[in-house]
Amino acid sequence: MKRRKVLSAGLCATALWAGSTTPALARGSSQRLTEGNLPAARRLFTAGKYDRLHQVLPGLVARASESERTGPVGAGRAAEVWVLASQLAVKEGEVDTAAAFAVQAGTAARRSGRPVLLAAAARAAATPLRRTGRADIALQLLGEAHDELDTGHRPSAAVLDASGMVALTAAYTAAQARMPSAAEQFASLAEQAAARLIRGRVPVVGGELSLAQCVLYRVGIHHKLGDIDRALAYAAGLDPAVLPTPERRARAATDTARTLLAADDVLAAFVQLQLVERAAPQEARRPSVRALTAEVAARQPDLPNITAFARRTAPRPAT
Length: 319
Fold this sequence. Notes:
Helices cover 72% and strands 0% of the residues. With 319 residues, it is mostly helical. The protein has 3 domains: 1-129, no CATH class; 149-239; 245-319, no CATH class. The chain is globular. 50% of the residues are buried.
């Protein structure tokens, strides 16, 4: 019970920070969610098709508000929608909106009684907290969420997947806070969970955890810690083809590009940015990726094709 109170308090702190933000996505017809609503929306996200997700998400957000009041099952479905909405807001650099949706996800997840969903909500909350200098709160949320999961002698595959992903998010958060011991501890926990998942040979529908996912996170973790050589070693050992979705392959190229820029290899960084566009074109138009493109162009303006790439990946005007 004490752990639940700490996690609840942390999510409430996120809500207070988010203030009175009203997410722009919260529009659409009102009806309850069905089990089939969520997988299709999730596939749009993992495919990097954020414009299409924008078209369907308003209706899901409105339905989530209705479903949350119907009981634990409806609350669980609502939590998944709020998490997805928060993740999309992060992709677009809308930190306040991401935080507000993460709070709603935490509330719905607690009503569902499912620690796996509470872990997903904590992960969603961690990103906007990190981006506003509140890594300490994010790390507390993630640690408590990890403790809530039953990872004893025979945890389910879904629990292993959730615990590993929470640990990876915590490792990255600790690295951003310059806490190398905690980052290494959480990364190791995730790798152990991934190994157990492989040994169990039970697929998780919609699961994210894998050894390749752990390697991908290691690139970002060691970049944040300033250990560029180690980050590049992990990047070199990662085969993007084994990552399951375009969004993840784009993330691998983005993190590698960022690390290569830190190593002053501008040309190789540009190669990676082109791989981002190849994997998921809309990823290349995200604000954080556009910032990397701008840095490449500023540091080596005569780089062949950099001007055309920058123009091509510029955000498209709203219609």
